[in-house]
Each structure stands twice: as C-alpha cells, then as structure tokens.
Design a protein that fits this description.
Layout: H1 20-33, H2 40-49, E1 52-57, H3 63-73, E2 81-86, H4 89-102, E3 111-115, E4 118-119, E5 127-131, H5 132-141, E6 148-153, H6 161-179, E7 186-191, H7 196-202, E8 208-211, E9 218-222, H8 230-244, E10 250-254, H9 258-273, E11 281-287, H10 293-297, E12 307-313, H11 316-319, E13 326-331, E14 334-341, E15 346-353, H12 356-364, E16 372-376, H13 380-385, H14 400-408, H15 425-437, H16 451-457, H17 463-475, H18 478-488, H19 501-507, H20 517-530, H21 535-540, H22 545-564, H23 576-587, E17 591-594, E18 600-602, E19 608-611, E20 624-632, E21 636-643, H24 646-652, E22 657-659, E23 665-667, H25 672-679
Parallel strand pairs: 1-7, 1-8, 2-5, 2-6, 3-5, 6-7, 9-16, 10-12, 10-13, 11-12, 13-16, 15-20, 19-21
Antiparallel strand pairs: 3-4, 14-15, 17-18, 17-20, 18-19, 20-21, 22-23
Helix pairs in contact: 3-4, 5-6, 14-15, 15-25, 16-17, 17-18, 17-23, 18-20, 18-22
C-alpha cells in the first residue's frame, strides 16, 4: 500500500493500559538488552564523522528500531526528518508502531509511517518509516530531499527495483547538497547480509560497522543426491522430522507461491490424519501475501501444548517476519522471481534457484531462539553453484516505471545514471520505446516527458495502468477504470482455499463475465458495495474483506489525483465495451491472438501462451485478448485477461500494429527498432 498525499492526517492515537508505566519500564529494559546497545556510542561517532555508513547486523540485533532512535536522541537529525526505508509495506507499518510505543508517542506524532495509499505522518514527525517506493516518489518533487537529514536504507540486500533506483537518487542528492553548501545528507545502508565491499565502494568507500546478533548454532543438512521433485522431498523431510522431533518444536518450510503452498498444506493435513504412533498433532499454517489477515495471524499464535506447528511460506518469511518456536527449516531452494526479456518484451514470473544469500537468510530462521537445524533439499555441490547474491530486480524487470520516474526528476541521461548494478543498455532503450508507444515520452532523441507523461508520473502505478486512467476521459468510464486499477493494485480480493476450491468457484459463477477478468472483478466490487461490505456475505462468496477494504483506500487516493488533474469523473454504467477499449490503450503490448490450432500466440513475441485456469475466460476462446502478466510454470500462462477487438488494438497504436485484413491485427517488427537505437 502506498500514499500519494503530502499533508499528514490527524495522528492516530495509541492505547496505553492503566499499568502503562510498568509496561514502558519493561520495554525500556528490553531495549537495553538488545545486542545493538553496546554499539550505540560508536555508531553515533561514525555517523558524525562520515556522510555514508554501512551497517551489518543479524536479524534481531535491533538495528531497524534502535538506530533511528539513537540518532534522534543524539540530536543528529538537526530538527529535520530521519527517513527509514523498507522494501515491504508490512515491515514499515509494524516497525513504526513498535518505535512509537517505545517512544511513548502517538502514531503520526514523533513517529509515523508512509506507505502506498496510507500516510500517518504529520508536521511533527521526525522518525519516518516508509517504503522505498514512497521516498522515491517524494524525490520527484524534491530531488535534494531537503526535508531529510538522514536517510536509512534498510534491508538493502533485497535489491528491489525501487531500492536500487533510490541508491542512485539519494547518492546524487548527497553530492548535490555538498556542492551547494547545504546541510549534509547522511546515508546509512543496513542489512543482515550483503556484498559488503560492493556497497561500501558504491557509497564512496563508506566504513562498515558489524553488529553482533542473537544467532544460535544451526546444523545444516544437505541432500546426498539431487532431487527431481522438491515438493515431494519437502513432504518426506517434514514427516521425518515430525516422527522424531519433540512436540512444541515447530517447522518452517519454504515453497514458491500460493497454489503450491495450498496444495502442500492439503497433502500434509491428509497424511497427518492417517499417521499412527506417538506423534503430536500437526497444525498447518500457510503464509503468503494474498492470505486473509486472520489466517496470517495463526502463524504467530503460540503452539498449543502437545502439538507441532508447520508454517509453509513464500520468501516473505526470509527477512520480514520472525515466528517464535521455529526449530527446523526446510529449504526447497526455490523462489518465484520476475524475469523480463527486453528483446522480446516478455515479462513473466518464473520459479528459479535461490541465491546463496537467500539460502543463508532462510537457514537463519532456525536459530533465532535456540539451536536449530536447516534441511536443504539440494546437494552441497548445487549450493556452491548457486549465485552468491540475488540478481538485482533492476536487471531482470521492465524498466518503464524507472525511466518514467527518473525523467520526471529531470534526469535525461538515463543510460549513464549512477546505478549500483547497471541494467543493460538494451533494457533501458526498450523501456524508452515502451513509454514512447504509451505517449509518455516525446518521439525525439532527447528524453523528455509529454503532457501525458507528466500526468502518468503523478500516479504511483505501472505506466500501463496510468495510461488507462488518463485515457478513460475519452471513453467516459473513469469511475470504472479507477475501480479496476485499484483491484489490480492490491493482493487478490478472491480467496480460494485448496480444500474448498470447487465450492468457491461455484459460488463465484454469478460474478463471472465472458468479457474477461477485469469485468468479473468489477462485478465483484459492485456486489460488495451493494451489501455495504457485509462480513457474512464476504465469507459466503470467498471474498478477502481486508483486501477489499484496501481497494477502497487505493481508489480514494487515485481519485484524488484525478481531481487534481481535472480528469472528468464520469461513468459508463454497463457499457463494458468502453471499459475494454480503455484498458486496451494501456495494455495493447500485452495482447494475444487465437491461432487456427486453438492455441494463443503473443502478438509482441510470437510465443505460445495459455489462459490461466483461474481466469474467467479459461473455457472460452475469444479471438483477441489483452493480459496483465505472464506466469511461467509448466506453461506460459496469461493472467487477468480482457476480451478486445483487433480493430481497437490497431486504432490504439497504429505504429505498433499493422492490419492484415479487417478484424485481424499483427505487430510491426518493433523490436528491430531497438537494434537501430542501440547502434546510434
């Protein structure tokens, strides 16, 4: 979630119990016992002496909560704001709440957070937790970051696309402020694990501080031979542990995504029912981003006496959270990563090997409270062959958003921008051409925003979605497009548990539209609004109520931006053709054509693609569709589809498409232009 407003709302009041003084005394004692405490004086001295500092500290050392407080208490903030960035929304919110509690501050007073579509900060806020994407958006209007005295870049090893761009932007602001004789901007880069030399060199040979943590010894067990089926190996390992380990010793198992986790959870429950002998009851707790909050909370509840908890999680459990009671970790060695091929314009999710750094993070989860064991479902030789660190997202993603943001900051020479790990020139040129096709950049050699591009940069969205919103004025359907974009900007509002999949699919048939998933989601939103968000209705229809509430927050923020841009807030009612035409203006590059053999072909890459089984169009065969993303598993699946006409695609982008004959469309060999541009 992220917020675009600049003015802070009324601070949120925190509730303290009557024995608040005793509670605060306990919190103060806990702070004094943290491993980081002995390093307080040295840390303050290093920040006073150097403009950039790298801090390495294990998870649990207290660096995220304590360092901003130490700097504030020492007066190093100089009455300006200390910004602490986080790659994940949940971390920015929960950590700020903890620090506000420690400072006995109302949320939004001394301590606040700002994430996408949620801002609790006020003019009094001096310690500000925020997602890296939000600080990057602020830099568009304030490249020198004049409101900040210290920027702390936390969890730097995750190397999200926003984090990497932020490295360059913050470093540039620091350099420019020095040139202009302004107050220095202090930069602190923090992580539990990172390529220390690489970070130190990038930030002008910054000194490195190592903090001791609370890690207990961990026994690492490798497979003797390679596993052809990591899912099966995960289950076998789990039940070996379950038979031999003591009750109350919980297990954390890493898999790659929701469907895989739900399938494994069902298998574990089925096997556990039929187990004989003296084994504890098994409590299975899935953990992934789209899971309803009440289901996520089960992960953190104490394990009942005589039972064992097994948490099956995505990489969200690598660094963002700590679950007490975990004694064993089962690492599949796999993760779902976004991969982008700029030559073919193919942007997809793919299951790949973890890096050695990720494997170490996963292993560390077993030693947080006591000695533990990590079972790696790969050989030691395979581990040695893994990459040392994860490929930065900026080197494997569509850079259209990055180019748009940097251009909005006035940076024109994007190819030579000071990236820590530079993406390929081809990827940058591809992003520039992508934005030109969307009408965001002028079709000249100089990289300059058009009036539409300036509007698009105002939205904290993928440029394709921003373009659809701006185009809605021409199709008189802005209210509907805002709803659809908001639904696509949050985790899925449709919750389909593996154990009740058939029931959920049957119940939701009434929302299904033969025109695609976007209209289906619009139908769900209208029905939810019609019952005023009734909780029982959500449960009956397998709707994630928490995510749906987030949709309303997102929609309100986007609507405010539209009002500022004087976009007409009109509605097309039930004219769904206008909605689909509007979506085509943003997603025309993500289009596919039905072939005579009954298969689909992506128009941009000429690769075979398939409708995802979860789509409303799974049993349909429309001639042309657009899609939001491709997911690579056993096949290359299109997700979030919408039925379109070939003529709409041609009318939207005649320079991109060519007409074969009425009602048919083909892509001009546009990527050959990239080669021409690269050779200039």
């Amino acid at each position: 979630m992220m917020n675009t407003s600049t003015g802070g709302p009324t601070p949120k009041k925190m509730k303290f119990s009557q024995n608040g003084d005793d509670h605060y005394t306990k919190i103060r004692e806990e702070r004094l016992q943290l491993p980081i405490r002995p390093a307080r004086s040295r840390l303050i001295q290093e920040v006073q002496r150097h403009n950039s500092v790298v801090v390495i500290g294990e998870t649990g050392s207290g660096k995220t909560t304590q360092i901003p407080q130490y700097l504030f208490e020492a007066g190093l903030h100089r009455n300006s704001i200390i910004a602490i960035t986080q790659p994940r929304t949940v971390a920015a919110i929960t950590v700020s709440q903890r620090v506000a509690l420690e400072k006995r501050s109302d949320m939004g007073d001394l301590v606040g957070y700002r994430v996408r579509f949620d801002d609790t900060t006020s003019e009094h806020t001096k310690i500000k937790y925020m997602t890296d994407g939000m600080l990057l958006r602020e830099a568009i209007s304030d490249p020198l970051m004049k409101r900040y005295s210290i920027v702390i870049l936390d969890e730097a090893h995750e190397r999200t696309i926003h984090t990497d761009v932020l490295f360059g932007v913050v470093k540039s602001a620091q350099r420019q402020r020095h040139k202009l004789g302004m107050k220095p901007l202090k930069i602190i880069v923090m992580s539990a694990t990172m390529d220390v030399d690489h970070f130190s060199q990038y930030f002008n040979k910054a000194p490195v501080l190592y903090l001791e943590g609370r890690q207990f010894p961990i026994t690492v067990m490798y497979c003797k031979e390679e596993q052809s089926d990591y899912l099966f190996a995960s289950l076998v390992t789990l039940f070996q542990i379950h038979r031999e380990a003591l009750p109350q010793e919980d297990i954390l198992m890493f898999l790659t995504g929701q469907e895989e986790i739900e399938s494994a959870a069902k298998s574990i429950r089925d096997i556990a029912k039929n187990m004989t002998g003296n084994v504890p009851n098994l409590i299975v707790c899935p953990l992934f981003a789209a899971l309803p909050s009440q289901q996520q909370l089960k992960v953190f509840q104490p394990t009942p006496k005589g039972c064992r908890k097994v948490i099956i999680a995505t990489n969200i459990a690598e660094t963002s959270i700590t679950v007490s009671g975990v004694k064993y970790v089962i690492d599949s060695g796999k993760v779902k990563a976004k991969i982008y091929n700029s030559r073919g314009g193919l942007d997809l999710m793919k299951v790949v090997h973890v890096s050695q750094a990720q494997a170490q993070q996963r292993c560390g989860r077993a030693g947080r409270e006591s000695p533990g064991t990590c079972y790696r479902l790969y050989t030691e030789q395979q581990y040695e062959a893994f990459r040392k660190t994860t490929i930065p997202e900026i080197q494997r993603c569509n850079l259209a958003s990055v180019v748009l943001q940097l251009t909005a900051m006035g940076i024109q020479d994007i190819v030579n921008f000071d990236f820590m790990d530079k993406p390929s020139t081809e990827a940058i040129i591809s992003a520039i051409e992508h934005l030109k096709l969307l009408g965001a950049l002028e079709n000249t050699e100089e990289i300059r925003l058009t009036s539409i591009g300036k509007q698009m940069a105002e939205f904290p969205l993928d440029p394709r979605m921003s373009k659809a919103i701006i185009s809605a004025k021409d199709f008189k359907c802005l209210e509907e497009i805002l709803t659809i974009v908001s639904l696509l900007s949050v985790d899925s509002v449709l919750y389909t548990p593996q154990s009740r999949r058939e029931q959920a699919v049957a119940v939701r048939q009434k929302f299904m539209s033969s025109e695609g998933d976007h209209i289906t989601l619009l139908n769900v939103f209208r029905a939810y609004k019609g019952v005023n968000g009734n909780k029982a209705w959500c449960q009956e229809n397998f709707i994630n109520m928490r995510n749906m509430r987030t949709v309303f927050d997102v929609r309100r923020q986007l609507r405010d931006i539209c009002v500022r841009q004087d976009l007409p807030l009109n509605t097309c009612g039930h004219d769904t053709a206008s909605i689909r035409k509007c979506l085509a203006t943003g997603f025309f590059m993500n289009s596919a054509e039905l072939q005579k053999e009954g298969e689909y072909m992506s128009l941009s890459t000429r690769k075979s693609v398939t409708i995802h089984p979860s789509s409303a169009l799974f049993h349909c065969k429309p001639a042309y569709v657009i899609y939001n993303e491709l997911v690579q598993t056993t096949k290359c699946y299109m997700r979030d589809l919408c039925v379109v006409d070939a003529d709409w695609l041609y009318e939207t982008a005649p320079t991109y498409f060519k007409k074969k004959k009425p009602g048919e469309c083909a892509v001009v060999n546009y990527y050959s232009l990239l080669v021409i541009n690269l050779m200039k």
